[in-house]
Amino acid sequence: MFRRPLAAFAACWIAGGASAATFGRAGVLLAGLSLAAALAALALVRGIGPRTAAACALAYALAAVHRVWTDERNVTELAELAEAAEAGEPPAAVEAVLTIDSVPRIDGDRVMFRARLESAAFGGGEPRELRGERVQVRIRLKEEAELETASRWRRGDRAAVSGVLERPGEAVNFGGFDYRAYLYRHRIHWLLEAKSADSLEPLGRGGGAGLTVLRAMDRLRESLAGRMESLFSGRQSGYMNGLVLGVREQLDPELYAGFAELGLTHILAISGLHVGVFLLGVGFLLRLVRLPRETTLELTAAAVPFYVLLTGASPSVVRAGLMAMLGLAAARMNRLKDGMNLLAAAALAMLLYDPYYLSDIAFQLSFAVTAGLIALVPPVRRALPPLKRGRAVADLLVVTVVAQAVSFPLTVFYFNRFHLLSLPANAILVPFISFVILPLGTVALLISFLWPDAGRLLARAAEAANDATFRLVEKLAERLELATIWSSPPLWWILAWYGALLLIASRLPDRSSEREKTSEGGQETETLDLHAAPGRPHAEPRFNPAGRRRMRARIILPAAAAVLLLAYAYQPDRFDRSAIVSFLDVGQGDAVLIRTPTGRHILVDGGGTLRFEKPGDEWRRRLDPYDVGKDVVVPLLMKRGVRRLDLVVASHLDTDHIGGLSAVLKAIPAKALLWNGTLSGKEDGEALLRLADARGLRLIAAHSGLAPYRLDDGTELTVLWPAAEPLTSDGRMPVMRDQNGRSVVLQLALEGFTFLLPGDIGVAEERVIIARRQETGADIDVMKIAHHGSRHSTAAEWLDYWRPREAVISAGRNNVYGHPHPDTLGRIAAAGARVRRTDQNGETQYRIAGGTLSVRTANGGQPVNHN
């Protein structure tokens, strides 16, 4: 890298920006001093030139200052409203004049776009002029007829909007998605919520020349997407729009999930591959008119920004477009340099424009994989013996393997999943989609404007190819036993992995100069490359045992280091003997994750999304509806490295407790399901039981006569309720529509501490449980308050009997039920228990280690220890 000063400068710039984004000022200074010392040491041993070392140190400092300067200016103009919101004040009513500066997206009954405020009046007061405060606007449509009105809204429109202004939500679970931080990186500090299309009054066209150009591109993209929908039917149209135009709003969620499972979503992101196909097409057309080489290069470079804007200007296509333009410009001047310098220049340009690109997943993956291909493919290819046949296949396999190895740490960090069939799936499908389906779809789209019948014919051929692709993706993605789950690794591990890859590549033998073996008089002859590149081993004869031993010795240490890194990342808590009970924040519902000291896992309930859809409201459905199991619980479990659930408990079959469990069972293997032994008469409950049976889980009907469930020496789960196995006279499971009273009540003994999980039982069940127990009282450490803090649960005698030190209430923010009820809170306070609420504190996590119980919450409060 240091032989390429621009690449070294860019790497140090990235380090400076990352340090400023991650550490405080002291941490940035310490990291900078460490980097300066390392650069000085390299300069002393002549591993780097003094000027390059000085430039790298300067890059680190400038990038850190640039990021800090950007952060200090990334503040809201409405500071007093922000303070009020943080103090718990309700959202402020606002009447604002704004300019739409993104494409409005309609999904069911919701319209979303970003806008810049020109003025705003709060609480009926005087309008206040603003300097373009950016907001995320969400409008909930009332009637289906409003869809037509919303479809006319465009980027660049000025409008008056009436609604409420509120702060975006922060992460409410440890490791969960932080919407506020996400919007902050887009310089947005507020959500503007409005009801009905009537809340937006158009005021004509606004914005400057930039918005006018983007608006024109939006119209062209919309026109092309409409044409694509006329050529392709069903889910094919959404797929082809995503593949060719980068329009992914109508992409089938289940199809996308299959691609994601196999690590194939990059093919749907407009990137270098698509830019390359576009440049080939432009170059071909320009060569048809026999333009000079210089003119062809100039026109091709000029066409790149058009394509970047047309396809949405995502970080990956911006990176590819910048590299293409820089490369074409260098070729025009006959000064074409290597790809790493072009990549470095593109990275510097993007980060100078917006340092927040560094936190963008697409930016990280795009640049990491491209840099990896540039740095690692040549040495790996040179290490292979010369091939007379199959060279293209070998090159494809090398590129696929390198891309997988480079993207692996970022993939498991962000998505916590790696499918073992990802490598063959990418090797087979990426070239097929890239060189067959993508050109077919592009040509079909373009030719359809001139010759519709030919466009439709090509579209039918593309659909047949797509059908084959979809079948293969679905077949491979079904192999869940090959889908490995990884907890998010630390930063040091990611850097160590890349270091191991570079070290392995640098120590591979160079066989590129070997001559083909010839047979003369029965003797084989080979020559060595005596002019091997500095720092690389000389070519080793394959038949030479000593050369083979030296080659193995050179790569065995970095290869062993890579294996050890993989072993650590797969199970980083291998030697952690702490136990953890996490009351997850799933809104108005319950979900409790238990980790035992031996690393086994129990999930009690999985939350659920309550839907109140009336007949005729089908238009309100989102393309990919929110599901608390799929969108919250499963990602959290994966991020924490939960690869198998030893027990899943459904306390009862109400949706707010089991609605998310189906997504959990589909994503994570489980051994057994414990539930109250009844049916609810509702589809979601019966669907869960059918799914559990189909997945091979052992179904256990809970009742107080069951033997305690032991997972290890320090973990025991005892069922206190229901009292008896609920079978009817003919041996069938009864249907009980009122499920609360049949909730499974569990007493968890964990490393000497006791937790009580009572589901949604009421006062009547509490009294029966107390009466059935022989003890006169029991001291417990943590009680989950029944039924989200309802006034009809958690009686004073229940609290007096158990005498909990801590009480956890799982409830949704601003829920319509008024949970927790003030009377219940009063009874808990009178019992002397410390209350923690997911609606206020987010996830509440108890950790047992060294005989001590400690607690921390995701939102507010320092960790507290209980001995």
Automatic annotation (TrEMBL):
Residues 514-544 are annotated as: Disordered. CDD domains: ComA-like_MBL-fold (cd07731). Residues 1-20 form the signal peptide. It catalyses: 3',5'-cyclic CMP + H2O = CMP + H(+); 3',5'-cyclic UMP + H2O = UMP + H(+). GO terms for cellular component: plasma membrane. The chain crosses the membrane at residues 30-48, 267-286, 306-328, 340-356, 362-380, 392-415, 427-451, 551-570. It comes from the Bacteria. Residues 588-813 form the Metallo-beta-lactamase domain. It is a multi-pass membrane protein. InterPro entries: ComA-like_MBL, ComEC_N, Competence_DNA_uptake, DUF4131, Metallo-B-lactamas, RibonucZ/Hydroxyglut_hydro. It is found in: Cell membrane. Keywords: Cell membrane, Membrane, Signal, Transmembrane, Transmembrane helix. Counteracts the endogenous Pycsar antiviral defense system. Phosphodiesterase that enables metal-dependent hydrolysis of host cyclic nucleotide Pycsar defense signals such as cCMP and cUMP. PANTHER family: DNA INTERNALIZATION/COMPETENCE PROTEIN COMEC/REC2 (PTHR30619), RECOMBINATION PROTEIN 2 (PTHR30619:SF1). NCBIfam families: ComEC_N-term. This is ComEC/Rec2-related protein. The lineage of its organism: Bacteria, Bacillati, Bacillota, Bacilli, Bacillales.
